[in-house]
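Hi Y.,

Following your request, here is the sequence exactly as I used it, all 276 residues.
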Amino acid sequence: MRLFACVTIAAVSLAPAPLPGQAPSAPRLYLSMFGGYRTARHLWTSSGQPFLVQTPIGPNPGQYDTLDLQHDVAPGFVIGAAGTYFPRPNLGFEGEIAFLGMGVESRCAIRQYQPPPSGDIDPELCTSLNGATNSLSAVSFSAGVVGRLRPDKATYPYVRADIGVVARTRSTIELIGTFADTARNALEEFIVVGDSVPNKTRAHFTFAVGLALSLGPASQLRLEGRDVVTSLDRVTGLADPSRGTLYPPHAGRSLHNFAFIVAFDVILEKRRGRRY
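Below is the corresponding structure, written out as tokens. Let me know if you'd prefer a different format.
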């Protein structure tokens, strides 16, 4: 017992004493990998749209079915990478690239011309659209500022605001249905709603709040909720049905999309605490 007490006293006496006024270090430069989940949102609805009766061998002039069409932004996953640098303890700058996993889900209901024309493929086209999801393969590039409170603590809150661009591979207006050919052994595509001048690149603004939790001297975990605001094209009226494929009027409107993110940060540099 006396030996244990002697060893304890020696260890305490040899340990460096903390300097008065010295604060723990705070992450200054780190690289991040993150993933998360993005919520669904309604995009546009077009009700009572006349649609020329189509058959496998061509349209029936003067005969129109009526379609109710809808597009929703489907939920999906988000993955990406970022780099953050803090020239000051509470204010930093961030650059980010993210794959949004964005898709659009369509809905279709039909009221047929009476009496229903022979060979009308419009019901089949509508059925193929109902519940179909098409990926937009959206990628975002952004930069912004980060503000944090008490970064010298093991757990601290932060906020950030980013601005950037979102690039997509598809239009948010276009709807392509399928039907069986005359031999009923192959599927053919038909553009029900077209977009002659698709806008696939839009600016976006992101506001986020989060909580950082230290995992050790070289890493930390962040839990973040973000609101991504971007402009997506929405149908604003009915199209001329006489052309076969519908080309409705549309315009870009702002859409709020919410996401929950989990990020893992590798800390490359820390800011040392001050001595007074």
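The two ends are 40 Å apart (CA to CA).

Thanks again,
Q.
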